[in-house]
């Protein structure tokens, strides 16, 4: 793909997004292509696998903000904790505790989102609403000084039914607003990460502050 085309696509997309932040999902794509998006002005990139993120982090400019958007195994946390900008996919208390432990070793505070299971599909990871409510309102927070939970993430069902997608995003957005009042030093819900190439316009209408977009920018993944 030519840099100019990529830049046009990105510029057009950014206009549509308004105040929401674009996370360019670069999984499966080589560093050269990511570099082109970087030159087109992007600084936030999302990867879903640690093994793929590490060489890209090494190869690409250091002012890139790397977002981990896929399921994260606890034994992989140590590889990314020194540089990751935001982990979107925290789906258990055990993972939160491991991030806290590794972040302490690095003397960092690592920002995270709680992933909420909003889709009908069984396969998608995340907390249920009840579980997330219990965690947010619990008194675990003072034990986790090296993490900061700054918001929520969700993935809608993969379907053509836009009304179903809207219902799922709206429910997450409502839950988000109902919980912004629960604040701790390391808990402050201000980001809502939802929307991908096929459903981001709905996500924006329903209040997303971040969208994660890959194939619309780079074409379909092989
Ligand atoms: C791959 C992926 C995306 C981007 O998907 P596209 O359809 O290519 O825009 C967004 N979020 C997560 C968690 C992903 O794994």
Structure characterization notes:
The protein has 9 helices and 8 strands. The protein has helices at 3-17, 31-39, 50-59, 77-80, 93-105, 129-136, 162-179, 200-205, 215-218; strands spanning 21-25, 44-47, 65-68, 86-90, 110-116, 147-154, 187-194, 210-213. Strand 1 (21-25), helix 2 and strand 2 form a beta-alpha-beta unit. With 222 residues, the chain is an alpha/beta fold. Residues 25, 27, 48, 69-70, 155, 196-198, 212-216 line the site of pyridoxal-5'-phosphate.
Note the main attributes of this structure.
single chain, 222 residues, eight-stranded parallel sheet, globular, binds pyridoxal-5'-phosphate
In short:
The protein is an alpha/beta fold.
Helix/strand structural class: alpha/beta
Number of strands: 8
Strand and helix order = HEHEHEHEHEHEHEHEH
Average pLDDT level: 96
Please mark out the parts with pLDDT under 50 across 5 or more consecutive residues, or reply none.
none
């Amino acid at each position: 793909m030519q840099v100019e085309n990529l830049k046009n696509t990105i510029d057009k997309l950014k206009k549509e997004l308004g105040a929401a932040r674009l996370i360019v999902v670069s999984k499966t794509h080589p560093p050269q292509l990511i570099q082109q998006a970087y030159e087109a002005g992007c600084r936030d990139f999302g990867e879903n696998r640690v093994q793929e993120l590490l060489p890209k982090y090494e190869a690409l400019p250091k002012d890139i903000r790397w977002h981990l958007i896929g399921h994260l195994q606890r034994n992989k946390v140590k590889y990314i904790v020194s540089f990751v900008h935001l982990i979107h996919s925290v789906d258990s208390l055990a993972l939160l505790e491991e991030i806290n432990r590794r972040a302490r070793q690095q003397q960092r505070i690592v920002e995270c989102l709680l992933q909420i299971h909003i889709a009908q599909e069984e396969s998608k990871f995340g907390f249920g609403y009840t579980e997330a409510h219990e965690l947010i309102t619990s008194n675990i927070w003072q034990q986790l000084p090296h993490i900061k939970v700054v918001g929520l993430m969700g993935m809608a069902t993969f379907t053509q039914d836009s009304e179903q997608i809207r219902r799922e995003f709206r429910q997450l957005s409502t839950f988000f607003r109902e919980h912004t009042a629960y604040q701790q030093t390391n808990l402050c819900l201000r980001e809502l990460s939802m929307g991908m190439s096929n459903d981001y316009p709905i996500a924006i209408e329903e209040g997303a502050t971040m969208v994660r977009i890959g194939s619309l920018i780079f074409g379909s993944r092989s």
